């Protein structure tokens, strides 16, 4: 097989790249190790920055998001028994966020790609990246029938997540990787209850962090800070609700309970592979960086990477210029590290660290007081939460498709 861009991974990064390239007349093939049903059915959170919402709408895949998503104009920070609202539009010149789960974004992108007769191979295995240092890299894989196939391409986009083969294809002595493991885990639940609050509530408590969010009018997503090594079997529904009540209930306000239909524990890390490009291989999304979910940046960073990469590939085919591609890592990392700083700051500000001294705990509470009493501090949180600008020329995708 022959294509211009071989894409490994059908998550938001890979699907969005294929979609953007298609709108610019550039061919691609996507390889995905899981089935379509699995990638569309794996429930993942989704807080979309203003820029992510804008690009989905501009490229024709935002209709269902605008109909079924929830526009939020702020978040609430809860500590010391009271809540403080951060007003996004007022602090950022009108920007907002959209709560729309990641798996729904994937459904919309898969539908758009298949409608355009895109080549997506699901259930592939034994993916190998070959000759990535040449101008004609190749991808070897087995299709769902077990047949070995080879794709010749001009570029490879590694959009296959933290555990995929793409990053591992870069020689270890060439990869610059930086990581922080947090002593926190999140116990997440899906519960059948009415919406508990119009906006997300981030709660700091001496017992640990909690987050209240929404999925649909009848299904809510809540999180508790727990030991990342804990066993979910230790957490009965009764224990989960009791702990949530202890951390978020206030005078005159009690969290609504309901049947818990899903629960799991995930660990938290910050990770950056600064070698986001090697030869004709370009990493994007979770293949290059992981952020703790406190800052709601994972999917949004993936979409930002893809906009840079698609811009560079278009330049290459339009004029032979390679400036954007040659500087892909540097361009992306400026935004990646700012998102890492914000996610780290939100995580350390809101989570209870048992190793903290009384002094450090006092500083943590004072940081929350500062961000909710200083307009400048609140504006900094709001600007980062709704998304920092992407430093690239804008593209009128609608004009391209006409």
Descriptive notes:
This protein is of the alpha+beta class and 402 residues long. The protein has two domains: 5-46 and 101-176 and 274-351, FAD/NAD(P)-binding domain (3-Layer(bba) Sandwich), CATH 3.50.50.60; 179-268, D-Amino Acid Oxidase, subunit A, domain 2 (D-Amino Acid Oxidase, Chain A, domain 2), CATH 3.30.9.10. Helices cover 37% and strands 26% of the residues. The protein has an eight-stranded mixed beta sheet. Strand 10 (138-142) and strand 11 (148-152) form a beta hairpin. It is globular, with a radius of gyration of 22 Å. The model has no long low-confidence stretch (mean pLDDT 95).
Helix content: 25-40%
What coarse outline follows from CA principal-axis ratios?
globular
Average pLDDT number: 95
CATH topology heading of the largest domain:
FAD/NAD(P)-binding domain
The CATH homologous superfamily of the largest domain is named FAD/NAD(P)-binding domain
Helix vs. strand class: alpha+beta
What's the tally of helices? 14
Question: Count the strands?
Answer: 20
The end-to-end distance, rounded to whole angstroms, is: 29 Å
- CATH architecture group name of the largest domain: 3-Layer(bba) Sandwich
User: In oligomeric terms, what are we looking at?
Assistant: single chain
Report the uncertain regions.
Answer: none
Tally of individual domains? 2
